[in-house]
Design goal:
The structure is a single chain. 28% of the residues are buried. The chain contains 1 helix and 25 strands. The chain is globular and about 65 Å long. By secondary structure, the chain is mainly beta. Keywords: Signal.
């Protein structure tokens, strides 16, 4: 029995070592020379993003491929940002497998049994955030900006006792909110979806009259969507006003990379006055829908993939094509306005990316092979703003 236990431990140890090694090999983050509080994103060996700053008090750790707390030094100066002691109430007894006892602080979860472990301090550092009246938010002090109200990740609530957004929101309060929202109302152009996701700008995209102006070489990049699995639910909405010029095909939104088309893509064929919707799933392969659009006017565009079909809409024109399976992944992030030299000329506004199916944008009026989308088929398709 003891030999079997040792064999299992060796297998688990080997598996964890392999996972960590693969993470290191796939890390696209690199340190900024001379400043350990910043990092860059490298998608290829010669292409890097701008510099991003780690959260206050943390430093970039190349070995872990993330921003981490620096080693503790009892002789170091006191932090300059406000902190507060953690609540001293008893730990939460979270249900699971019938075990309602608090976890042993000396052992890792899953290792709650007698056995020797090196001494580890159980004293937690000060809490750097504070609760808000609305548990969907919390307050955080950011050097140079003061105390900032920030939103928890979608689907989570702030837990004051644990000092973080770790509680799952009740299903009744989950609705399909945009993860990215670009309203182009500010300079520089930023995400207003509530989570302040970094947006890269190659310097040729401007905010003009509360809309994004693209001149054929302008490009915005959402690095967060590099190599991401969108699964079977995605909604993208935007409006655009195109101008003469540019290539025969122009990208509005795409996760294309090099000469490969995006697994998720909205593009224009300006000569034919068509919007092109593309999707590529693991199970069905690539699919494409083309819809006409009117010249010299703002056009409203909606892209929906719900695991059963790609659904497309331009103003009052809509169409769907049957598909299934997960959307394929691409190494590139979301590129807005240009991808593999297909540069867009015109304006884009009110761009929203939902990693869910928002029933406010439901498509399906019986045209093509599909019946209208029925939100009752999904447990999480709950409408929202």
């Amino acid at each position: 029995m003891q030999g079997l236990f040792l064999s299992v431990c060796i297998v688990i140890s080997s598996y964890l070592h392999t996972c960590i090694s693969q993470r290191m090999r796939s890390c696209v983050l690199r340190p900024v020379e001379g400043d350990t509080t910043k990092y860059k994103v490298y998608l290829t060996s010669s292409r890097a993003s701008g510099e991003f700053r780690c959260a206050d008090g943390t430093h970039f750790n190349q070995e872990k491929c993330l921003c981490d707390w620096p080693p503790r030094n009892n002789n170091s100066a006191t932090a300059t940002f406000p902190t507060r002691p953690r609540p001293t109430t008893e730990p939460i007894n979270r249900p699971g497998n019938g075990n309602t006892r608090p976890l042993d602080p000396i052992r890792l979860p899953g290792e709650q049994r007698p056995g020797f472990r090196p001494f580890e301090s159980t004293t937690r550092g000060p809490c750097l955030t504070s609760p808000d009246a609305d548990r969907n938010y919390f307050s955080q002090y950011i050097h140079g900006y003061g105390t900032v109200r920030r939103r928890c990740p979608i689907g989570t609530l702030y837990n004051d006792r644990e000092c973080g957004c770790i509680d799952l929101a009740p299903v009744t309060s989950i609705y399909c909110r945009p993860e990215i929202y670009l309203d182009f109302d500010s300079k520089p152009i930023i995400d207003n979806g509530g989570t302040n996701i970094p947006i890269g700008n190659n310097g040729h995209v401007d905010s003009v009259a509360n809309a994004g102006r693209f001149n054929g070489i302008g490009q915005l990049t959402i690095w967060m969507y590099s190599n991401i699995d969108f699964g079977q639910k995605l909604t993208i909405s935007l409006r655009f006003y195109d101008f003469p010029g540019g290539p025969d095909e122009q990208v509005l939104v795409s996760n294309c990379m090099d000469n490969e088309l995006g697994a998720v893509e909205i593009a224009l064929a300006p000569r034919n006055k068509e919007v092109i919707f593309r999707a590529d799933t693991v199970a069905s392969g690539p699919a494409e829908i083309r819809l006409p659009y009117k010249d010299k006017a703002w056009k409203n565009v909606t892209y929906v993939y719900d695991g059963t079909a790609l659904r497309a809409k331009v103003d009052d024109e809509e169409q769907a094509v049957a598909m299934k399976g997960h959307l394929d992944t691409r190494a590139g992030g979301f590129e807005i306005g240009m991808c593999n030299r297909r540069g867009y000329v015109g304006y884009i506004d009110d761009l929203k990316v939902h990693r869910c199916v928002n029933i406010d944008y439901v498509i399906g009026n019986g045209k093509g092979p599909l019946s209208p989308y029925d939100a009752r088929d999904s447990n999480l398709d709950i409408g929202g703003p």
